[in-house]
Specification:
Elements: H1 9-17, H2 23-41, E1 44-47, H3 49-57, E2 69-73, H4 89-94, H5 103-110, E3 114-119, E4 139-140, E5 143-147, H6 153-160, E6 166-171, H7 177-183, E7 186-189, E8 208-213, H8 216-226, H9 244-247, E9 256-259, H10 272-287, E10 291-293, H11 303-328, H12 339-350, H13 353-376, E11 380-384, H14 407-414, H15 419-423, E12 427-434, E13 440-447, H16 452-465
Parallel strand pairs: 2-3, 9-10, 9-11
Antiparallel strand pairs: 1-3, 4-5, 6-8, 7-8, 7-12, 11-13, 12-13
Length: about 475
Amino acid sequence: MSELARHDAVGLAELIRTGELSPVELIDDTIDRIETLNPQLNAVIHPAFEKARAAAAGDLPDGPFRGVPMLMKDLWPAEKGEPFHQGVQGLKNAGHIADVDANLVTAYKRAGFVMTGRTNTPEMGLAATTEPVAYGPTRNPWDLERGSGGSSGGAAAAVAGGMLPAANASDGGGSIRIPAAMCGLVGLKPSRGRISMGPQRDEWGNSVQHVVSHTVRDTAAILDATASPFPGDGVIAPFPEKPFADYIVDDPRPLRIGVLDRSIRDGIPIDPEVAAAVRDIADRLQDLGHEVIESSPPALDDQDLIASYGAQWTAAVATSLDLFGEWIGRELTKDDVEPMTWALAQRGRQLGAVEAAKAADQAMIFRHRMAEWWADTADLLLAPTCLRPAPLLGESSGTEENPFANVHVTLAYSTLTAPFNSTGQPAISLPLARSSAGLPIGIQFVGAYGREDTLLALAGQLERSMPWAHDRAPLHP
């Protein structure tokens, strides 16, 4: 059944619905592909194959994705009874097991997805590459010497490598879009409050959940299946007039689209091939009838406002380590985590209450200033997802003596993604270009808060104009 690797999740669900394929057959085929490909990729770190087979043979909910496999990222969407390590050596050593289903896991199960395992992630999702000490590096299916991005690198490698059509991913600073860009996939970061983060996380934070996939219709249809609020959610994004999947069918009205084809951070240059790819897509957008303007939000060039993200980030690392200590019944020490994680936590602990409050205020000011550009100037922003294609494995690593030795490499990937986690806006990376070396180049579009409908409509138009789903990584079956 190797031809099943070429179907997207919507297509597989239809085969099951019409009786051409059974859930058991699909799960067995998926497990075969994972077992074949994973030794090369190291994408799946916690297989749940027998549990998946039992679920597929049982009474699955009659949801839109009945019988379709799903891999969960081993970060915050916990699944009761499954390992929950977040790339942290201390949690791995303790054999920590989740005692609750995340709301998103509940939503996936209601939709009929079959939980098949958990994917690799950098420690606590803190890096733009998936190379945790606890579980080893995940390799890019386009070039096994290169990284698959982070922090959803395991998910992206699994999908790009052909294990399954879509996999859970999360994005706190670019962690859906960066791996999607590096692995030639579609990666939508939804608006803040679009998908529930409970019961262990808050919707008001910078991180959001969704998937990486090959097709826009999977991205839209899975969003329809999971964008449902749960009791206690702190933010609920406004709903569109119709299902998200309906927006991808017809071309959008002519849009006004600003272009950013440069770096916004001193000392972090953009690869000329990436800049050229952005210009090529700007030309294609004009050919499709859209108005392209030389404009981008001025707030993106305010280094002080963007720096507020760092204070929130380090404080979150410190509080998370304290929480992990509660889980395993002892404080985590320097030996339980990687050098960069420990260094970030120490910085977070040094923040005073006033300094933390000022950082929150800066983030609020940044959010408002950014929103003004979408309200007054353009419908969407076109930009690179990352400033360069995928790095070689080890290129982003620090050392014990200098945990931040290669942070400039990481910044080449997160500089143009993280600002939109701070603002809570939706953003999508599309696989619209390649480097001269054949590596995927992701092109990013950013919408106003709550306007995934506009992003998905344009993504659908570009997918019809520049079809990419047939173009798979060399490792893909």
